[in-house]
Amino acid sequence: MRYLPIHQISEDSILAIPVYNDSGSILLNANTVLKRAYLSKLSLLGYAGLYIYDDISEGIFVKELLSEQLKRSTVRALKSFNLDACRLMAHSIVDELINQSDVAVDMVNIAAFDNYTYAHCINVSVLSVIVGMGMGLNYDQLKQLSEAALLHDIGKLSISLGILNKKEKLTDEEMAIIRSHPEEGYKAIKDNFMISGIVKNAVLSHHENEDGSGYPRKLKGNQIHLYAKIIHVCDVYDALVSNRVYRKAMNPADALEYLMSNSWIMFDVYCVKKIMEYVSPYPTGITVELSNGQRALVVEQNRIHHLRPKVVITDTEEEVDLMKVLNLTIVKILT
């Protein structure tokens, strides 16, 4: 199976992974023959792409990080600003991830919903839990971390999409509104006695930098809680590798380079090391462009070096192990 954007899927393709609606009900079962009407309707509902079966991806199995029901239920909890439901969803994210056979898992993109913020919150929660697992955090710590990561941008939900999605440079006033979201998020959850003080502090502090140049309190180093440090790294990484209306997604290798180059300045170096160690930036089943201009399908991860997976050239169906063919690199994700 492989992932393709909706607009690239041919009519009569075979669906590989079921599609669910916001209520968690199945819209289309696996093995459904995709008619044009189905694809058009899914596109209108906000589905960016689907996993399909085809000849070139035969034998490739993509393990879902999260069930589609959980993704959709989590978006619904965020949209309704139901904090109790959000906490439950955050704990469910931990439960699903902790049962993975290998903590080093593909970071498969969550479907692009009608508002980037919701998908981003889920991605950051997943990334943060994976990093936390790699650090050896216990179950209760992972649940707290997942809560904080899922709620970290809750303060943005009151900001207009006109500002969040503005293509032009933000004015000073608009930038101040954006930079207020950690404090607004904290205000939104501070009176909920079910949410721990550590979680609230992490939401408030997820834009603090190691050198004290962050906001809102200009904390530095050990003044910043570990959860906030983890969320900061995962937040920036996911933002960089995601398409936005005002810029295209950065190649994951370049995003990791950005994290490394800003260690000790913006980011905790240990957190950066762990995201590089436990997150596969090129998920199995996606199409990439190689440095020689060829398109290739990622078919298997190299756990020693996540930036150099095994791929199959789509034109020739030749398998290439990028750990052995060192003069080739992945330059961008095409799907």
Q: How does the SSE layout of this entry go?
A:
Elements: E1 2-5, E2 13-15, E3 19-20, E4 26-28, E5 33-34, H1 36-44, E6 49-53, H2 68-79, H3 83-98, E7 105-106, H4 116-135, H5 139-151, H6 161-164, H7 172-179, H8 181-189, H9 197-205, H10 226-240, H11 252-261, H12 269-278, E8 279-280, E9 287-290, E10 295-300, E11 310-313, E12 319-321, E13 330-333
Describe this structure in words.
This protein is of the alpha+beta class and 335 residues long. It has three domains: 2-53, Molybdopterin biosynthesis moea protein, domain 2 (Alpha-Beta Complex); 68-280, Hypothetical protein af1432; 287-333. It has helices spanning 36-44, 68-79, 83-98, 116-135, 139-151, 161-164, 172-179, 181-189, 197-205, 226-240, 252-261, 269-278, and strands at 2-5, 13-15, 19-20, 26-28, 33-34, 49-53, 105-106, 279-280, 287-290, 295-300, 310-313, 319-321, 330-333. A hairpin with a 4-residue loop joins strand 9 (287-290) and strand 10 (295-300). The longest helix is centred in the middle third of the chain and has 20 residues, at 116-135.
Summed up, what is this model?
This protein has 335 residues and is an alpha+beta fold. It has helices at residues 36-44, 68-79, 83-98, 116-135, 139-151, 161-164, 172-179, 181-189, 197-205, 226-240, 252-261, 269-278; strands at 2-5, 13-15, 19-20, 26-28, 33-34, 49-53, 105-106, 279-280, 287-290, 295-300, 310-313, 319-321, 330-333. It is globular and about 55 Å long.
N-to-C span? 14 Å
Find the structural class using helix and strand composition: alpha+beta
CATH architecture of the largest domain: Orthogonal Bundle
- N-to-C series of helices and strands: EEEEEHEHHEHHHHHHHHHEEEEEE
Shape verdict: globular
Number of helices: 12
